[in-house]
């Protein structure tokens, strides 16, 4: 290979590595935890006027009654839900918003389908008017209320005022969290299975929660609230051996009733310092023993994925072309 060719190859490899590092990089767990807790505080305490919010959720839930370990009765629910929300000028008379919800659910009893739902709902706010279309959710609403609907499910009306006035809420008032950043950080640090990375400027932290992590957080909560100390006679302070013993008992109890195959919490922090991603992926089960049969077994598998983008930036919202054709709602009849 010629010298220039070797130099070109080496340069290409180095350039590729640099580009990869710029897009996906590492960050220490300690630093990532600080970024996450700071992002929660910033997101909760900052006035937010505009954003795009997307939710995707899936559910597979089963409840079984057991007698001597044998299933005698069962019920299950499966479903998927998606929600998209876009908002500009949330608190003012210039509010613009678009909400689209789509749901697909089914329920079974002892293996037989007893209910099915396939519904969608749409809502918009623009130029001082709100628009609602629930026509694709009619069967769900009728099943929910137990009777046929006679009122219009699609229509428009005039906004009675800005949301801030309607809710008697001052969006400039600083919301105080029930805990500070250091307190939240101390609880987050109790989780051992943590991975962190940076991708395209977004810090992504994944917490893999175990039964032992739950026990650690529970004990820490009791210690911080001084509940354990208050239960000791003569105000006797707990030592490390006492705490370990209490934790072991609690952990043994948890392991008898709780199964965790997967419990992952993924949190994203954007370049702007706001929370950008909240994901929960869960595969778990609970067995509730009783003195007499039947016992109850609950298995849950599902996810909730939330993405939040462009906080306090102008959001592009596409409204349906036929909004003017929506009939006026008649709230008097």
Briefly summarize what is shown.
The protein has helices spanning 3-23, 29-45, 138-145, 163-166, 181-188, 211-224, 227-230, 240-257, and strands at 24-26, 51-67, 70-88, 96-109, 112-126, 129-133, 154-158, 193-199, 202-208, 258-269, 275-288, 295-309. The protein has 333 residues and is an alpha+beta fold.
Description:
This protein is α+β, with helices and mostly antiparallel strands. The chain has one domain (25-167, 179-325). The chain has eight helices and twelve strands. A twelve-stranded antiparallel β-sheet has the order 1-8-9-10-11-12-2-3-4-5-6-7. Strand 10 and strand 11 form a beta hairpin. Helix 2 (29-45) packs across helix 5 (181-188) and helix 6 crosses helix 8 (240-257). The longest helix has 21 residues, at 3-23. Mean pLDDT is 85; it is low at 1-24.
The backbone outline, from C-alpha atoms, is: globular
Average pLDDT, rounded to a whole number, is 85
Structural class: alpha+beta
Cα(first) to Cα(last) distance is 86 Å
Biggest sheet statistics? 12 strands, antiparallel
What fraction, in percent, of the residue positions are helical?
Answer: 25-40%
* Major β-sheet strand ordering: 1-8-9-10-11-12-2-3-4-5-6-7
Content of β-strand: 35-45%
Poorly predicted runs of 5 or more residues: 1-24
């Amino acid at each position: 290979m010629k010298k220039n060719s070797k130099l070109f190859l080496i340069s290409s490899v180095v350039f590729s590595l640099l580009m990869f590092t710029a897009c996906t990089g590492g960050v220490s767990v300690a630093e990532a935890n600080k970024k996450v807790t700071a992002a929660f505080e910033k997101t909760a305490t900052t006035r937010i006027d505009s954003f795009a919010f997307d939710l995707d959720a899936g559910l597979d839930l089963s409840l079984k009654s057991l007698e001597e370990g044998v299933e005698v009765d069962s019920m299950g629910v499966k479903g998927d839900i998606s929600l998209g929300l876009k908002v500009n000028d949330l608190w003012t008379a210039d509010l613009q918003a678009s909400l689209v919800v789509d749901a697909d659910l089914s329920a079974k009893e002892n293996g037989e389908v007893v209910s099915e739902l396939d519904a969608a709902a749409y809502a918009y706010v623009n130029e001082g008017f709100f628009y609602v279309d629930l026509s694709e959710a009619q069967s769900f609403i009728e099943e929910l209320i137990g009777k046929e609907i006679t009122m219009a499910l699609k229509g428009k009306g005039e906004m009675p005022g800005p949301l801030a006035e309607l809710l008697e809420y001052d969006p400039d008032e600083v919301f105080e969290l029930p805990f500070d950043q250091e307190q939240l950080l101390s609880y987050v640090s109790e989780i051992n299975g943590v991975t962190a990375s940076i991708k395209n400027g977004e810090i992504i932290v994944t917490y893999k929660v175990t039964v032992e992590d739950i026990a650690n957080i529970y004990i820490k909560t009791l210690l911080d609230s001084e509940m354990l100390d208050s239960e000791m006679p003569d105000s006797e302070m707990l030592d490390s051996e006492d705490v370990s013993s209490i934790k072991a008992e609690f952990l043994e109890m948890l392991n008898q009733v709780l199964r965790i195959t997967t419990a992952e919490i993924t949190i994203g922090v954007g370049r702007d310092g706001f929370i950008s991603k909240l994901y929960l992926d869960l595969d778990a089960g609970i067995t509730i023993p009783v003195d007499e049969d039947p016992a109850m077994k609950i298995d849950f598998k599902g996810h909730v994925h939330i993405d939040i983008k462009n906080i306090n930036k102008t959001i592009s919202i596409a409204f349906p072309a036929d909004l003017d054709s929506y009939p006026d709602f008649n709230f008097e009849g």
